[in-house]
């Protein structure tokens, strides 16, 4: 066992060295032996609580940097803080190689206004979310990061502290950065309801989970706001909950809609219309699915948005057969 652990450590060290080497060749500036490096790319994710920023290059290489009080941050020529940076901004970061501590971050992007607060309401079907007192609109291109991970709109909770950047002159959120408690998810069917406790039998055959509906639990039934009394035994549900207390953050219950699945390759992506077209494996008519901010998307085993899906990628999608709204999309390959 000890030999395996040591081997894993060596592999991890080599992987880090290769990553830094790729950054150094493609994006870094400086001289050999320098203690600092530079990376140019886009802001992929931000973890506000841990004060981390992940920068991804055009070749797919990424580096997670620690942002400290001394980090000089500039966006569109104006000095600011980590909260001023918008996901998908173009950015160049100078950092100390030994600690991955950012010395300077220079970013540019569209003009935005910042909205801070907690979520008081959300419509997964319509993509509208209220942050503080502001009603914002999300779409398929809205990049959402929660605790440093790209997530879907349905994974934001009422306990999260949110920072949204809104395109100037509109209510369209270009991004939402959330910081909140850890969460678990269960998808399945309600088997019992006793008071404010709900038992869900997971669709993957794992052990049933009993969650509690609290005052802050967000409930949607058939894509409309609901309450505990609207939930029924045998309903299909998707619930996010605190893995320690089992208090539900959100519960989304479906009706009689029929879900379908398709496997194939990406034939087209329209980020303006918010659609992805799939050529089915084995032939047949192409199918175009609608994508919104509530669609869970994974590209190469990482959380992503519609714009990350590329032509020709292998793809699997679960969708509503009536509305053609994609619920979950997996595209690309595995890093395993």
Task: Provide structural commentary.
With 336 residues, this protein is mainly β. It has 4 domains: 14-108, OB fold (Dihydrolipoamide Acetyltransferase, E2P) (Beta Barrel), CATH 2.40.50.320; 112-179, OB fold (Dihydrolipoamide Acetyltransferase, E2P), CATH 2.40.50.320; 184-253, Nucleic acid-binding proteins (OB fold (Dihydrolipoamide Acetyltransferase, E2P), Beta Barrel); 259-331, OB fold (Dihydrolipoamide Acetyltransferase, E2P) (Beta Barrel), CATH 2.40.50.320. It has 1 helix and 29 strands. The protein has one helix at residues 2-26; strands at residues 36-47, 52-56, 62-66, 72-75, 78-80, 90-96, 101-108, 112-117, 119-122, 128-131, 134-137, 143-146, 149-150, 161-167, 173-179, 184-194, 197-202, 209-212, 218-221, 224-225, 236-241, 248-253, 259-270, 275-280, 287-290, 296-299, 302-303, 314-320, 326-331. The protein has a 7-stranded mixed beta sheet. A hairpin with a 5-residue loop joins strand 9 (119-122) and strand 10 (128-131). The longest helix is centred in the N-terminal third of the chain and has 25 residues, at 2-26. The protein is globular. The two termini are 21 Å apart. Residues 1-33 have low confidence and may be disordered.
